[in-house]
Design a protein that fits this description.
The protein is mainly alpha-helical. It has nine helices and no strands.
Length: 224
């Protein structure tokens, strides 16, 4: 049986459900042009929304998995996917909506993943890794299912994993210097704003090039 959607004012729980909804919408939107029916769209949304948290919980040996212990996570993902499927059949949405929603989901999940790992008393480096995995793994699974090279592995991925890394690292470094709510909020803002800056300002990490070697002409033409 599903737990109540809110038990008092639980901001972390509300943030997690918000992250699930946002990532589910982003996953559903990524189905555009893939000729998927509503079942395929829902599956894609669920994988995107819950994949990172599932890998995190398995890595932390945390059972039952969060969406099995509380199936509100699953219902929120399904509802968000169905809403998106219906909405997009009748109304146009800005093309950058997917990127902005994905940035929001990344920000929420990266910080909440770090928070859960820290609450388990794990070492700071593991806390940072769990933040990155929670934020980025769902999107990687989504890309694989839609036949794309995962965004996290592409040079043109606009610092996807790097943004999650920066937010999780801030969360670890800020521990003990401020209250948890402010700590989570600032960490999420760092991820979100850095991701938006990477998208709209075309920021990239340096590319590996051997000294004395030039890039092939066709690759240079693709660079911004």
């Amino acid at each position: 049986m599903a737990q109540p959607l809110m038990d008092g004012i639980d901001l972390l729980y509300a943030a997690e459900l918000t992250g699930v909804a946002v990532f589910a919408i982003a996953g559903a939107l990524s189905a555009q042009g893939k000729r998927l029916d509503i079942f395929g769209v829902v599956v894609l949304a669920i994988v995107t929304a819950l994949g990172g948290g599932t890998i995190r919980d398995i890595s932390l040996d945390s059972y039952p998995l969060v969406w099995i212990a509380d199936n509100n996570y699953l219902w929120v993902a399904v509802a968000a996917a169905v809403f998106t499927f219906i909405f997009c059949r009748y109304l146009n949405y800005p093309k950058r909506t997917l990127l902005i929603l994905d940035a929001m989901g990344l920000a929420l999940f990266a910080t909440l993943g770090a928070e859960k790992a820290q609450a388990a008393g794990l070492a700071p480096i593991i806390v940072v890794m769990m933040g990155v995995i929670t934020g980025a793994a769902g999107g990687m699974m989504r890309d694989l299912l839609t036949g794309q090279i995962p965004l996290i592995l592409q040079r043109d991925g606009s610092l996807y994993a790097t943004c999650a890394l920066a937010g999780a690292l801030f969360y670890v470094l800020a521990d003990g210097w401020m209250n948890t709510t402010l700590q989570l909020t600032l960490a999420a803002l760092i991820v979100f704003l850095l991701r938006l800056a990477a998208i709209f300002a075309n920021l990239r990490l340096p590319e590996f090039i051997m000294a004395g070697h030039e890039q092939p002409k066709q690759e240079q033409d693709k660079l911004p």
